[in-house]
Amino acid sequence: MTNLIDPGTVSDIQDLPAGEPAIALFLDFDGTLVEIAPAPDEVRLDRRVPAALDALRTSLSGALALVSGRPVSFLDAALEPYKFDAAGLHGAQVRLDGEIRAQADAPEAMRSALRDMVRFANSNVGIIIEDKRISAALHWRLAPQLKDEALELMRAVAARMGAGVRLQEGKSVAELVPASASKGTAIAHLMQAAPYAGRMPVFIGDDITDEDGFEAVNALGGLSIRIGEGETRAKIRIASPTGLRTILLDAAERGSLTASCFSQG
């Protein structure tokens, strides 16, 4: 059974016991570091978070990465002036130590798929299309009544594109991504390299899109954490992005972050 952490209890975290394993921290962005916004370009990041993540990266000897459906370039802009290791576009891009180590090719049929998505958006108020070049997402958060139609379209497009593409469904969004890309494979890839190798992975996310990341971390003997409600493979929960930010900011101030920080209360 997963445990729900009350953000109000975070301030009671005491000094951590000696001998805890060193962790590697992997963080989703939307719904995890920031609250979900009506539109992708409307998210707002707490101004204290970038510097706190930089401090935590130092305390973790560099073993901190963002694992997101956003492009790496977006994550850089959101967290400037800091640049972190990152797996963007659901693992289709992987940057380590400032260098892109893996990047999937855009499926050949993506241009045709985008035309179908744009036609649907032009015919329906509230539908938003994100063209990420390697992947493409259709959002219906502003038009929840169109969920069934949107999913029918995206499933049909994915089927037409064939085995090279996977349809990633999430909260009011469906995204076409290269079939080889996933957050789980990206985390596993990073865990083979310094400074992540030999550490216990901790992955925090909030959505269906994070479940393969939870599965990968569980298989590696790590800690998987779900933000909010919903069925999940994660081992524990944190109630909200606000609760997570409290934990991260407190840990950054102390200069120490271990798995125990996420399981108090």
Describe this structure in words.
The strands form 2 sheets. Strands 1-13-12-11-2-3-4-5-6 form a 9-stranded mixed beta sheet, with helices on both faces. It has 7 helices and 13 strands. The protein has helices at residues 49-59, 72-78, 110-123, 147-161, 183-190, 211-219, 241-254, and strands at 4-5, 23-27, 64-67, 85-88, 93-96, 99-103, 128-131, 136-139, 165-170, 173-178, 200-205, 223-227, 236-238. The chain starts with a strand and ends in an 11-residue tail after the last helix. With 265 residues, it is α/β, with parallel strands linked by helices. α3 (110-123) packs antiparallel against α4 (147-161). The radius of gyration is 18 Å and the shape is globular. The longest helix is centred in the middle third of the chain and has 15 residues, at 147-161. The model is unreliable at 1-17 (pLDDT under 50). It folds into 2 domains: 4-14 and 21-104 and 181-262, HAD superfamily/HAD-like (Rossmann fold), CATH 3.40.50.1000; 110-178, Alpha-Beta Plaits (2-Layer Sandwich).
